[in-house]
Predict the 3D structure of the following.
Amino acid sequence: MSADERRESVIRAAVTEFARGGYSATSTEVIARRVGVSQPYLFRLFPSKQAMFLAAAERCIADTRKVFADAAEGLEAEEALHAMATAYQRLIIHDPDKLLMQMQMYAAVAAAEAAGDREFGESVRAGWLRLWDDVHLALGADTDGTTTFLAYGMLANTLASLGFPAGHRVWSGFYDSAKPDA
């Protein structure tokens, strides 16, 4: 494998491992083992554990942005909203590591900020802002619509993370396109 291909493998492994273990509890050793490389080689690709986490976070956000862009392509306003909601629901059901990685990103940034490290979150915030801008444009630059869509997305993240099954009453306030399939 080329260094770029190996780097890509490390990012995929980092998403999985950080999603499941969080930033603090995930060792670079477990990431290296998942990829099949040594830790020294891992650190030739990434200068630090933090750099690996931030690359995994960026990948998670980029993948979500792509899901939204693909779903909304050629659609406007409410059609785009429902297409993106359906696509996002599929993403977090079929690739639960994406959901878990998002939750770990928020926790890691909050922990870093509580410890006085604001820089750690800058990259994550920048990626999330790009996602917000993409959604905003897909929804016709409607700030209320963007806020509502993303607020429902965060509620979906919470309910899915807590394991509320499809059909549970907590999902009843969602538009049908944003409800998990029963």
